[in-house]
């Protein structure tokens, strides 16, 4: 069995997840072609090359009810799979073909816990900093501005959010009060509504092929609580939506990942059963070992959602790396009806575990130390882009409740244009900002300040530099002042190395806001120009916690713009 790297739990951990390297998922242009192949169960007469026509199929089946274009083919070994894939991708009757990959949840870690605004009566609401950050352990206002948003809209049961995850705890009253219910179905062993699923009262379990969507690992429940724990009821936490319909679609079990065929099945179920928004808090990291084009089957299934006006919200992943150089899927699809979400902490800084990209990550949202629901009517703090994505899904549901006729692209535009500009996110996400529910609901669209121009280089009064190499638990701060009329400043590093896991260069502006963090940028660089800060003052801090050995930095010049 071939091993390929995937995102897993653990802030900086990478694990190689299993790939079903003998299983191929195919999406045909026509259902008739698929049906013919399923009936014959032979490639002879189907394939054009002799090598492929002689392959023996171990199993053939259509795996998406009510959509006969999807077929799973099982062959004897990996070499046969490669041979078959090569031909399938050249056939005119095939839309896409790829291996049945295994995806991982993008939860990073967990800890036990327990005006013109509308505040919830839920007893743990004061601990939900992402909804209302009072600056006790973070930056005042570094939140999604939900208290003001609730004066406008608190959600609607008419809005359906499908959560493709590990299920949901149906015994937690904070969740069950907002669980989606299939009113056309009864518990009688019959497919009453004719959708291809018997007794799918609350959704579907694609692992066991039954209607039991009870969560076994808490991840799906945590995500669900962020989007729509019943609010203002004097119990537990408040979801972004006080009322909403949460559709649990279970593709992750108690352990391990989720195979792509089950994710595709869940997408098609959500589309066929009235979902308006789909939350996907999982990812598959290529790590440079997957050939291009292998993700087309899942991409096609997600792309099909656009015709139904469904918004697809994906987590950026937890490698702490750039999606430009290390793609993760579905984050990197960049579809018109998709939003990919990076994570921030309570100080409005990109979370250390979060993937980022000014091209593929659309927006950031709180994902560090997020309190939400667990199994057993419990609550816990979790980290991960898994927690950031449902922040966006939740706000999307509020927008849909406020504007019932809006389609995915309209909701997406309101979310992205309504973000708060955050300087430290300028190179981390496309919008350079963090989610703001109030702005999006009110149609308040803020633009980023213009880029400074006409830079003037000037020598520092004295060279600033760290120890070389930097030792354990080292921290050194330097202050740099520019001319009184300087509108912006940036530092020029003669040499810089901060590629160890727990070291970083941070640059702060005159307000004490961290604007730049170069943590985990690989390798030694020379004559590197930093991101600018506004004003005529900057503080540069080098930090290392555990790992010594890096060069640190040396700087002789800075630049300013008037």
Features:
alpha+beta, five-stranded antiparallel beta sheet, single chain, 11 helices, 17% helix
Description:
A hairpin with a 7-residue loop joins strand 4 and strand 5. This protein is α+β, with helices and mostly antiparallel strands. The longest helix has 18 residues, at 385-402.
Question: Summed up, what is this model?
Answer:
Helix content is 17%, strand content 29%. It has 562 residues and is α+β, with helices and mostly antiparallel strands.
Report the β-strand fraction as a percent range: 25-35%
Number of strands: 31
Strand line-up across the major sheet:
10-11-9-13-15-17-18
Alpha carbon gyration radius:
25 Å
**CA-based shape:** globular
Percent in helix: 10-25%
Overall SS class: alpha+beta
Mean pLDDT: 89
The biggest sheet, with number of strands, parallel, antiparallel or mixed sense and barrel status, is: 7 strands, parallel
Report the uncertain regions: 1-18
Distance between the termini: 60 Å
- Give me the number of helical elements: 11
Helix and strand arrangement:
Blueprint: E1 3-7, E2 14-18, E3 20-28, H1 31-40, H2 50-53, E4 59-62, E5 70-74, H3 78-88, E6 94-100, E7 102-105, E8 109-112, H4 146-149, E9 160-165, H5 173-176, E10 204-205, H6 219-228, E11 245-250, E12 258-259, H7 260-272, E13 277-280, E14 282-285, H8 296-303, E15 311-315, E16 328-329, E17 338-344, E18 363-366, E19 370-374, E20 378-383, H9 385-402, H10 408-417, E21 420-421, E22 433-434, H11 437-442, E23 456-465, E24 474-481, E25 488-497, E26 503-508, E27 514-517, E28 524-529, E29 533-534, E30 537-544, E31 552-561
Helix pairs in contact: 6-9, 7-8, 9-10
